[in-house]
């Protein structure tokens, strides 16, 4: 022990300083090792909590039976969330080889999320318009999911393209998966939402998505002391797209209805 203290003094490091440095770097190491796995679990909790308040009424025991594609979409959607947790766990436990091997299944699953997401949005819009005669719900069921699928598909595709660049790949997949949580945020039973203007409701929904992504920014600032390029491009682009959709809902509803009719026929 004496020799250790002496050696530290010879290189200009005080024993107490070395100990404090170890303590200070512990949170950084935790973020390095557990951040993406923690985020996968957080996303799962948000999705389960949000959908648990509507899945029975709107899907399992719906008064008017829903189209079959909605059930398929739900299964694929939750399958992606579970797969995201599984892949994050494989990386956390250093099973990188298996992570890469099952990654191609994730490619197929992600493509299914995108294709079924758009198809389900169109089908449910027709269902709302022509079966339930609820035009307002129909427009919401179209433009919102279209934004979600676009926000998922672009970073997902880029993550596949940069699959051999882990720093890009994992951040892009995080952004893509966070984009899917807007549907869960929209279903959370907050008592204040019914009395709030529509714009504030949309800000709540998309703000939840943005906060999840921003946690990645915070992680980078703490661990790497800089913001990765993925966030520098993805977050502003997502904010701009969300602002456009919110403004369309708030100020040009007739245009939203025309777009919905043009898509569904």
What does this structure look like?
The chain contains 12 helices and no strands. The protein has 265 residues and is mainly alpha-helical. It is globular and about 55 Å long. Helix 2 (15-51) packs antiparallel against helix 10 (198-223) and helix 8 (166-179) runs antiparallel to helix 10. The chain has one domain.
Could you give a short description of this structure?
With 265 residues, this protein is mainly alpha-helical.
Provide mean pLDDT, rounded: 83
Strand content: under 5%
Which term fits the overall shape?
globular
The DSSP helix count reads 12
Oligomer: single chain
Radius of gyration: 22 Å
Biggest beta-sheet profile? none
Give the ordered list of helices and strands.
HHHHHHHHHHHH
What's the arrangement of secondary structure elements?
Elements: H1 2-10, H2 15-51, H3 55-60, H4 68-92, H5 96-101, H6 103-131, H7 135-161, H8 166-179, H9 182-185, H10 198-223, H11 229-251, H12 253-264
Helix pairs in contact: 2-4, 2-8, 2-10, 4-6, 6-7, 7-8, 7-11, 8-10, 8-11, 10-11
List the defining traits of the structure above.
single chain, disordered N terminus
């Amino acid at each position: 022990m004496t020799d250790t203290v002496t050696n530290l003094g010879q290189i200009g490091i005080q024993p107490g300083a070395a100990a404090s440095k170890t303590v200070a770097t512990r949170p950084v190491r935790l973020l390095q090792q557990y951040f993406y796995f923690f985020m996968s679990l957080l996303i799962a909790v948000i999705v389960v909590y949000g959908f648990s308040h509507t899945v029975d009424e709107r899907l399992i025991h719906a008064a008017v039976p829903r189209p079959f594609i909605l059930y398929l979409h739900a299964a694929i959607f939750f399958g992606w969330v579970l797969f995201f947790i599984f892949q994050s766990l494989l990386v956390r436990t250093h099973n990188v080889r298996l992570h890469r091997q099952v990654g191609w299944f994730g490619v197929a699953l992600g493509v299914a999320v995108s294709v079924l997401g758009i198809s389900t949005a169109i089908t449910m819009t027709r269902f709302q318009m022509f079966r339930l005669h609820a035009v307002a719900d129909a427009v919401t069921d179209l433009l919102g999911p279209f934004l979600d699928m676009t926000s998922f598909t672009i970073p997902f595709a880029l993550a596949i393209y940069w699959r051999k660049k882990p720093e890009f790949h994992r951040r892009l997949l995080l952004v893509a998966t966070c984009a899917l949580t807007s549907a869960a945020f929209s279903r959370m039973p907050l008592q204040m939402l019914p009395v709030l203007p529509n714009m504030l409701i949309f800000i709540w929904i998309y703000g939840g998505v943005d906060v999840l992504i921003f946690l990645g920014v915070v992680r980078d600032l703490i661990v790497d002391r800089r913001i990765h390029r993925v966030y520098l491009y993805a977050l502003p682009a997502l904010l701009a797209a969300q602002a456009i959709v919110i403004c369309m809902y708030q100020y040009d509803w007739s245009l939203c209805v025309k777009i919905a009719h043009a898509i569904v026929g």
